[in-house]
Amino acid sequence: MGSTGTGGTPGRRRAGDRWGGRTDRTDRRTDRVGAARRWSRRPAPTWLAALLALALVAAACGGGGDSDGGATGDEDAGDPTPGGRIVYGLEAETIDGWCLPEAQLAISGIMVATTIYDTLTRPNAEGEMEPWLAESVEPNEDHTQWTIRLREGVKFHDGSDLTAEVVKNNLDAYRGAYPARAPQLFIFVFQPIESVEVVDPLTVQVNLKQPWVSFDAALHGSGRVGIMAQAQLDDTRTCAENLIGTGPFRFVEWVPNQHLRAERFEDYWATDAAGNQLPYADEIEFRPIVEVDQRLNALQSGEINAMHTSDPQTIDELRDLDEAGEVNAFESSEFGEVSYVMLNSSKPPFDNITARRALAHALDFEEFNAILGAGILEQASGPFAPGNIGHLEDTGFPTYDPEEAERLVQEYEEETGRPLSFTYTTTQAQATLAQAQLLKEQAEEVGMEVEIIGVDQSTQIDSALQGDFEAIGWRNHPGGDPDGQYNWWKSGSPVNFGRFNDPEIDELLDRGRTTVEGREEIYEQLNERFAEQVWNIWIYYTPWTVATAPDVHGVPGEGPSAPEPFPGLATGHPVMYMWVEQ
Amino acid sequence: MPAPDGGLDLERPAAAPAPGDVPAAAREPVDAATGAAVPVGGRAARQGRLGWLGAFAIAWLAFVTLAAVLAPVLPLDDPNENVAAIVNQGPGTDGHVLGGDALGRDLLSRMVWGGRASLLLGVASVSIGMVVGGLLGLLAGYFRGRVDTVLAGAFDVLLSFPQLILAVTLVTVFASGQGVSSTRRMVVLVLALGLVSVPVLGRIARANALAWSQREFVTAARAMGARNRSIMFGEVLPNVLPAMFSIALLGIAVVIVVEGGLSLLGVGVQLPTPSWGNVLAEGRSELRQAPHIVMVPTVVIFLTVLSLNYLGDVVRARFDVRESAL
Amino acid sequence: MRLILRRLVHLAVVLFLVTLFVALLTAMLPGDPVDAIAGFASEEQREALREELGLDDPVPVQYVRWMGDFVTGDLGGYYTVTGERPVMDRVRDSLPVSLQLMVYAQVLALAVAIPAGVLTAYRAGSRGDRIANATAFGMLAIPNFALALVLAYYVGVELGWLPVSGYVRPSEDLVEHLRRMAMPAISLAVGQIAVYMRLLRSDMIATLQEDFITMAKAKGVSPRRVLWRHALRPSSLTLLTVAGLNVGTLIGGAVVVEVIFSLPGIGLLLYEAIVSRQYVALQSLVAIIAVGYVLINFLVDVLYAVLDPRIRHARA
């Protein structure tokens, strides 16, 4: 497990050079410096970058939390100019729409959701939650009761007022206590809520069954927990396509697989740091363009002026284009998701730790990165990406060691009298299928047998839900508060797909949920426990890049007059700060 | 006549009367199954001779078939071995004649092994179409009446599906669930594509059987008290076979193309087992960086389909297959 | 009239069987549709959903219910945990895209094939004829998706002439609309050009040997007029039939091309329904395609009989 600064492969080094190198980070403050560096738009020559990096480390150490490194590029761009139109290429269509409590949004869906809706809280540059649509979100002493005070005078797009009543109804809808709505996943997430009460027209009180220190993070839900207007909440027919929020843009039209259009909401409540009305752009249009090549073509031909991608080859290409001044590219694996092989520990062969360890030792990340990652991927040793609470450079997760892997395969065979063979379930999407094929080769090199099962997406989710798999390609656990992962890992939870039943992890999860101090340690321990038991085979932290036309700025919300941005891109970024040079 | 969505039309070159051969009055409305009267490939083919194109077609088909059959003993790289140095590299890199694919695998080796899957699929599924479709068509054409109504109706129904949609649906239903091995996927593909070709070959057989059953020698055999079975197989079938055979050649081409379409939709031969179609489909995402991954299978499929079409035309011209003359 | 009646009965029978077949197939799809639609739902929700979808009813009952809706214009809904979103809404957006694609491909194919077919027939055996024939034969062997990819790469990426993805409505921007439809339409048209050209050529050659042509020639009608007026008309009937048959084919056949160029047509919708197990939607979509296909054949048949006096008499 190479640390990020040392550059494990030639590819990494190249990346490091280009992006001014990332210093090894031991605490969360320097973390931010690394992040800030990578936000700069036009990578400077190496020596300049090195100097800058030094200066930034100094600034960060000396100046506390106000580092402004990310703004370097924006100074060329000048102040945001209002007007213009943003056409944003998304990687997928959200075919089930945006009836938020019932929706299961991935990054593309979240991008749209945060355009139309506001969440009560949102993360700041450190990933800590701050009130957003709420004026304040405060817990009582033992964190069993949270009081949400709303901003005054906030309007929904349909002209209705944001009131405590509406917020209560929304929260009830998310937790499955509002008759008109039938949420699925959110029921588990908000299961600790006992009741939601309206205290006064602008104050909501949430009573919990147990202490929950990161309830404010759950209210953000990676941007999924937007507040919908009463009219949409009660809409039993067209809830999914009739979007009404308080967000920076007002929904205009959605033609599935073609586009979703929204126009600037004149009465939007938020202003930037300089007091200018947000959002900057007049219009935004999202277009699902599934093929990444086509998305990039569309960006280069001017058909769209913004896009996102997590495809390593494309990210690599975008770096070159950024350097040549053809696009602005913003890259981050901070607070990202981890890509991994999820193992089913409820049945052979991966109910056996020898088998799990063997597979972990068989994974040749360097080859993986060179072939599939364009050399830019960062190896993961645990579920928490850089930036997250609980992230560790080295968790003790087994590293590539073919001899040891072979030995363990032998051991497994002697132990059980069976060859170590397993099925690997994957969707037929090109990227995941490529990953599956390479992993199969690597596993077979040390003597395992792997059969690839190609399924469609709904079958894959079925397989996971029903535990009808042995190994499966997966990507999950985006940043934010690690307590957000509670349901994915708690034993007995229906969405603990790997079905590991680990009392130590359960205990850590519960402590992390209820403890205020020392949470870093708790989640670091959890991380190490994962590595020790090899419940999953971690591969890499998913990098994301947002690229825009040269005259589009403001991703991911940085700029002279924007607040310092949350550096993660894994669950999208706010579009209200994006602006087009006029 | 729903053309296989791969872009080929099974019945397209079906009836091939030589110019001037068709009496004007006999110009029937074009039957949905037998397709239109279409002239054949070249002058040589039109006269039922092979010509240099025919020689080329046979040579090419022999070449790909031999390569596919001999793949295990040929001095080729492992088609699944990943070599980082040739990822997306063009032809000629490091002695890899056709270069490498997106996972650093030798493209030549994948094409040769892919030929195994593609050709096997083509031959196997069309054989099913030949046997099942041929038999049903023969029954329908020979007995006519109610049998014909039912069977021709069944063909009609099957032909009312765009063939690719039918194939996709069948593969999804029977081979995309949990725990479906790649072998099962292959079997389902053969059966699905076989089912797709049943009505096409069935209608050809029916049309021909219909025509031949009314000929003098059949009537004579019947008059002499020969049993239906022996007339059907002894007198009618041999005359129906050439037509079916010429269509079967086209059918193999169609199946190869349809497999490509299925692969693009993610339900073709299961990777990492290569087929021409899935090599092409995999190359789709590398079009910018490595267009050769798409171009190589495109050229191979093109040449193979061309050869099969041409030979189909030759066979048809030679045996004077004319389904439109019913 | 009797012909039309007979075809109508035929139409109804085929439609019944096609939809029944789809119903049986979808009933055999692996897994519980409820898992696909609402994987995380509670037991109660699942029960309610099963109830609502009528999944516990026997297949014939489900089929009859669906058929009743379908004939009254209700295509059913995409099912989510609560509420349903009408399939009709999506079809309304997608059908025009596929129809446009189909019409463009067809017009393009005929626009090239008719002159080529007539000229090659007129000059049968000439060098030009041989070259045209060989080209057509080659065109038949190009899979449309391969052509689509090659076009997307050379015209879209290398040359940068045309956008390679997405759809723009003609009402929004006609030029942009055509630019986006160009490559998909060409990909579909190339194979058809070859079919039509070869067809027309052989038909015309036969027609040109007929008595009424010789007569016209003898009367001193100019060769051009003989060719385009006298000879083309009877020959165009065969062409019409095949073109009609191909329309039905193209509706569904363009799935791959629609996927490659990200065109939000019926093909894409159908594929989506299959992979997300929206059974009702799947059934309705396949039925729509089958109806379209059978109807077009029906119309062509009727038209054919009306246009060509020889057929009218032969049948009578």
SSE blueprint:
The complex is a heterotrimer of chains A (582), B (326) and C (316).
Chain A: H1 10-18, H2 28-39, H3 46-63, H4 72-77, E1 85-90, H5 107-116, E2 121-123, E3 129-131, E4 134-139, E5 145-150, H6 164-175, H7 185-189, E6 193-200, E7 203-208, H8 215-220, H9 230-233, E8 249-255, E9 259-264, E10 283-288, H10 292-300, E11 306-309, H11 312-323, E12 328-332, E13 338-343, H12 353-362, H13 365-372, E14 378-379, H14 402-416, E15 421-427, H15 430-445, E16 449-455, H16 457-466, E17 471-476, H17 486-489, H18 503-514, H19 519-533, E18 536-541, E19 544-548, E20 552-553, E21 579-580
Parallel strand pairs in A: 1-10, 1-11, 15-16, 15-17
Antiparallel strand pairs in A: 2-3, 4-5, 5-7, 6-7, 8-9, 9-10, 11-19, 12-19, 13-17, 13-18, 14-18, 20-21
Chain B: H1 43-46, H2 51-70, H3 107-143, H4 145-159, H5 163-175, H6 182-212, H7 216-223, H8 228-264, H9 276-283, H10 292-318
Helix pairs in contact in B: 2-3, 2-10, 3-4, 3-6, 3-8, 3-9, 4-6, 5-6, 6-8, 7-8, 8-9, 8-10, 9-10
Chain C: H1 2-28, H2 33-37, H3 43-53, H4 59-71, E1 77-79, E2 84-86, H5 87-122, H6 127-140, H7 144-158, H8 174-208, H9 211-218, H10 223-253, H11 255-260, H12 266-275, H13 279-307, H14 309-315
Antiparallel strand pairs in C: 1-2
Distance separating the two termini of chain C: 11 Å
Query: What is the CATH H-level superfamily of the largest domain in chain C?
Result: MetI-like
| Total number of strands of chain B | 0
Number of domains of chain C: 2
What would you say this structure looks like, in words?
- The complex is a heterotrimer of chains A (582), B (326) and C (316).
- With 582 residues, chain A is of the alpha+beta class.
- Chain A has 19 helices and 21 strands.
- Chain A has helices spanning 10-18, 28-39, 46-63, 72-77, 107-116, 164-175, 185-189, 215-220, 230-233, 292-300, 312-323, 353-362, 365-372, 402-416, 430-445, 457-466, 486-489, 503-514, 519-533, and strands spanning 85-90, 121-123, 129-131, 134-139, 145-150, 193-200, 203-208, 249-255, 259-264, 283-288, 306-309, 328-332, 338-343, 378-379, 421-427, 449-455, 471-476, 536-541, 544-548, 552-553, 579-580.
- Residues 1-75 of chain A have low confidence and may be disordered.
- Chain B is mainly alpha-helical and 326 residues long.
- Chain B starts with 42 loop residues before the first helix and ends in an 8-residue tail after the last helix.
- Chain C is mostly helical and 316 residues long.
- Chain C has 14 helices and two strands.
- A two-stranded antiparallel sheet of chain C has the order 1-2.
- Chain A binds chain B through residues 291-293, 296-297, 313, 317, 367, 370-372, 423, 425, 427-431, 433-434, 436-438, 440-441, 451-456, 459, 462-463, 466, 468-469, and chain B through 80-82, 84, 87, 102-104, 172, 176-182, 185, 266-267, 270-272, 282, 284-285, 287-289.
